[in-house]
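Data availability (excerpt). The following record was deposited with the supplementary files.
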Amino acid sequence: MDERMHTTPWFHATMLPNVPAANLVQIGIGGWHGSRPGMKVARERNMTVLTVGDVEQLGVERAAEIALELAWRDCKAVFLSLDIDVVDIGFTPGTGSPEPGGLLPREMLKFIRLVAREGLVGMELVEICPPYDVSDMTAQLGCRAIMDVLGAMVDAGKIGRRMDAPSNTANVT
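Predicted structure:
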């Protein structure tokens, strides 16, 4: 596939010395657009892929727990890449890889809040395609996702204070 498309960042990330492939976890993969060669590479490089069916069977909480355990293993930081097409096309028409049968918005939002509470070094939101997003509902969900991640991190004390500051805060007058 084209170097700038779809899962190629994941492919290239597995070749970085400070990003062990075993720490890369993809959640919510599904549909007919999935790449068999991509899945083969994921298996060969010891990446973890949980499909939409896996999330449905395990539940959002358990899927997040598995993803966090793998992502944080022997690592100092975790980065979240949210591909909006993980959400069912009925809620995200403005994406380049629309697929029916994806996660519901509330499932995706719950999942990313659980992940964000552990702290993130960064986040990206990908696959929003404005020409297809005639109602702006995909962009609105993307904005909500970013705000929920930031809010969860603030609520968990993972953002909004210096990292070397004491965890207990005293009232300063």
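Summary of structural features: The longest strand covers residues 25-29.
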